[in-house]
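Students often ask what a holo structure prediction actually looks like on paper. The answer is less mysterious than it sounds. You provide the chain, you provide the ligand, and the output is a string of discrete structure tokens encoding the 3D arrangement of the protein together with guanosine-5'-diphosphate.
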Amino acid sequence: MMKNVVIIGTQWGDEGKGKVVDILAPHFDVVARYQGGHNAGHTVRIGERKFVLHLIPSGILHDHCCCIIGNGVVVEPKALNSEIEELRQMGVESEGRLFISNRAHLILPHHVELDRAREKRLGANSVGTTMRGIGPAYEQKAARTGVRAGDILYPDLLRARLAEAMADANFELVSLGAAPLEAEATADQFLQEAIRLRPFIRDIAEMLNSSIQAGKAVLLEGAQGTMLDVDHGTYPFVTSSNATAGGAATGLGLPPRSITGALGITKAYSTRVGGGPFPTELLDETGAYLQKRGNEYGASTGRSRRTGWFDAAVVRYSVMLNGLDAIALTKLDVLDEFSDIKICVGYQYQDELLTEMPYSAALLGECTPVYETMAGWKTKTAGITEFDELPPAAKAYVNRIEQLIGAPIAMISTGPERTETIIRKNSPVGNWMG
Ligand code: GDP
Ligand code: IMO
Ligand code: MG
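The corresponding structure tokens follow.
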């Protein structure tokens, strides 16, 4: 029986994917990232130690796991080298366990400069990117002028392609009022970093598919979230890759039928970093409270995350798009002190009650949430590990969310630690861990 499960953020990212991957990893042989880059920040707390993974799959913290960075990921060599080094200093060795697809595109020095210059030019309409060069790297890939990890094995070829790409970018940088890059010195520095990645480069599709044939189980670690997906999210306020389930097949060279399960990670309220519509956003003291109590500051950029009530319309949409078998509901403990808790069940747009996610960010921006109010529990749920021990009002909240989104909540996270987790037996997650 194959067991290859994809983990997907169902909102705008930062739902707690790192923690959930860390809990499931002991039951899988391989953990693979399929899209995004070091814009991601996945936090794993183990006792006093805190790991924030950006490019390396969170499975690296489990010695037996082989970790893969797929062709759908964009890799910035210096950032990856730093991450490998930081992990090494914390006693985690990546060499021999981490493999990068030879088809993964590299984030080149001018991508970061272009990201900055374009965001500056957009001014008040900026996307609020992580400034990591993600968008320009995917653009270059689609333009068929990119540089791939496999090219690191051919430094002369890499240097020539980089020089060409940088020359083009310098035109654009100047037209945007930014300083052009000094080609020779920038290329030297880039190559120095890139060459250090040589031992990690492999043909991933071959490796993964033969592992699956040999009966190994693969966990596919998504980054960002469904609403940041370039096709299905709140375009143009999105990232530049397919964070949704389909991205796992193209981003690793896996046949879709080899993916046997999908787990959505869902925060018990909503957050978003950067620009773009956010119907349930709370700009009042309740929002500030959620930010503080939920420690909602970006794991990659340190920016404050915008906060708001749970949006069932968003998660219902994610359940549909990703075919989610189950949900892991995280950060329930953050709601412990509220007397009343609101859930958005749909949107009001002019005279219409919308039941489907509007296609455009502008339209979504004009929608007002339709709320249902539930009683809070005003009791500590932090650290609870059994569903039956939750206060009745917390159970009612979980049950209502299940009804509204149309997927079972198989796991509930009640704190950042591995141990602070409820796993419901007789659920898909229980089976994957069995
Ligand atoms: P990711 O990008 O989806 O992996 O999520 P992040 O790591 O960016 O953000 C999630 C944050 O919430 C991290 O700081 C986690 O340590 C923390 N966290 C995860 N689950 C819980 C939970 O159930 N309760 C609380 N209080 N914090 C949690
Ligand atoms: P994880 O994996 C939350 C957001 C940025 C911005 C938009 C585009 O930790 O959940 P980009 O730099 O990707 O071009 O920025 O996407 N964004 C994230 N928000 N969590 C993330 O990752 C994100 N990665 C990108 O804030 O709005
Ligand atoms: Mg994050």
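The two ends are 13 Å apart (CA to CA).
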